Please model this.
Amino acid sequence: MPTSTVGAQTPAKASEPASAPDPARIARRRRLTQWGFVAPAVVFMLLFFGYPLVRNVVMSFQDYTPKTFFTGEAPFNGADNWSNVFQDALFGKALWHTLVFTAGSLLGQFCIGLALAVFFSRRFPLNGVLRSLILLPWLVPMVVSGIVWRRILDQDTGVLNSFLDTLGIGGHTPWLTSPEMALLSVILVNIWIGIPFNMVILYGGLQEIPKELHEAAALDGASAWRTFRSVTLPMLRPVVTVVLVLGFMSTVKILDLILALTDGGPADATQTLGTLTYQNSFVQLDFGAGAVVGNVLILISAVFAVFYLRANRTEGK
Amino acid sequence: MASHTPTASRRRWGSTVAGVLILCVMLFPLYWMLNTALQPDSGLLQVDPVPGSLDFSGFSKAISDQGGHLLTSLAVSLGAVAICLAISAPAAYGLARFGLRGSRTIVFGTLITQMVPGIVIANALYNSYVDLGLVNSYFGLMLADASLGIPFSIVLMRSFMVSIPGEVIEAAQIDGAGPVRTFVRVVLPMSRNSLITSGLFAFLFSWSDFMFALTLNTTDEVKPITLGIYQYIGAHVGDWGSVMAASVLSAVPAAILLVLAQKYIAAGITGGSVK
Model:
C-alpha cells in the first residue's frame, strides 16, 4: 500500500543528522505542505458537492418566488413545499416515469450490451476496429443525440416511420407526440445511448475470466448456453453489479436527453424527477419546490449508493 | 488448431459480417445526422437515404449561426480542463503518497460525489452564483464544468500515482528536492499519460455539458454549442439541415482530440488499472 512506503521513509529522514533544531516543527511544516496538495480539491468538492447538498435541504423549507430574486428574501415556510409537491399529481407521475425509464433503460442497455460483449469476445477479423467504432456515439453530446433522434422519430418526415412503411408494418407511428408512445421512445433512445458503455465494461469483465474454465466446461460436454449460465455469468457478477449501479446513477438523473426529445411532454408523459426539478426551479422559479423533488432524487440515489459501496467492498476483498 | 481449416475461417469472416451489420445499426443515427446535414432545405420533407448531391449550405449557415457558440464551448472546456488538472493532480499525488490522516475518507467522498445528481447541484449553485455575480460568466461555467471532471480525475490519477516506484521519489528527495519540486519535476512527467487521459475526459464532460449551460446562464453572453443547438431547434424547426450540420460540428473537436490522443488514453487507462 502507498501509505507504508511513505511511513517507512519518514523515520529514515528523521534520523538523518538534521541541522534544524526543532524536529517537531519541521514535521508540522511538512504536514502542512502535504495538506497543501490535497486542500484545494477538498475545498472545491465541499463547495461544489457538499454545499449544494446541504443548501438543497435548507431550500426545500424556504419560500422562493420570482420576487425573491429582487428582494433576496426567501422566508422559511415549514413543510409547505413538501406537502405541495407531494399533493401535486404530477409528482407521482414523475416518480413513476423515473422508475419505468430507469428500469427499462437499464434492462435494455444491459442485455444488448452483454450480448455484444459476448459477440465481440469471439476472435474474428476486424474485431478490434469494429469494437472501437461502436464507441463513436460517445463523442456526441447527449443533448445532440437527443436532437438527432428527434429528427429520426418524427411522425411524418422521420426516417424510422418511412422505413417501417416500406416494410409494411406500423408506419405513421407518433413516437414522440402521443402520450402513450413517448416514454417508450425516450427509453429506446436511452438504451441506444447506454449500449457502448455496458458493452465496454462487460467486455473487459469477460476478458478477465480465465480461459481454462471455459475449456473445462467444454470438456465436460456443457452446451454453450449452459457454460454461459453456469460459468460466465457467476464469474462476471462483480462487474455486472458495477455496471448496473453506475448505469442506475447516470440514468435516474437524466435531463438533457428528455429535454431534447420531448421537453417532458406530451402532456407530461415523459416528465421525470430530473425534469420536474428543472421545471420547478428554472421555469416556474419556485426553487423551494425544485429542492423538494431534488431531495427525493438524492434519496433514491443514496439507496443505490449503498448498493454500490457494498459491491465495491466485496470486490475489494 | 481447428481454426486454420477453411470452414472455420469462413465462420470467422461470417462473424465479421455480423459485426459490420451491428455497427451499421448502432451508427445509423450518426450517419443520418451527416446525411441530413448535407441535404438542406429538406426540413419539412422526408430525407433521401443518400444525399443526391452534396450541399454544404447547411454547414455554412451553421457556422455563421453557431460558430461563436463552438468557440465558447472550446474556451469553457479548455478552462475547465485547466482548473480540473490544477486541482486534481496535486490532490491525487497527495492522496496516493503522503499517507495523510483522513485520506481514505477523502477518496471515499470523491466516489460519493459522482452520485450527486447534477440538477440538484445546479439548483443550489444558481442561487449562490447570483449572489457572487458568477451567472453568465465564463469563469462561473468553467468552475461548474470542472466539477464534472475533478472526482473522475482524482480517482484515475491517484491509481496511477500509487504505482510510481517509491525509490524514484526518494531519490529526488535525497537530491534535496522538496515535495513541490519532486511533484513538478518527477511525478508530473512520469504521470503524463494519466494527466492526458484525465484532461481528455474532463474536456469531453465539459464539452457535452448541457445542464450547467442551461441553468447557470440567463442571457446569450455565454452560450456553449449544446445550448446553442437546443435553442436552435426551438427557433428553426423547419431547417433541419443546419441543425444537423451544427450537430456534426459539435462532434468534430472531440473526435479530433480522441484521434490525436488515442495512444495516451490506452496507456493512461491500462497504466491506471493494471499496475
In short: The two ends of chain A are 14 Å apart (CA to CA). Chain A is about 75% helix and 0% strand.
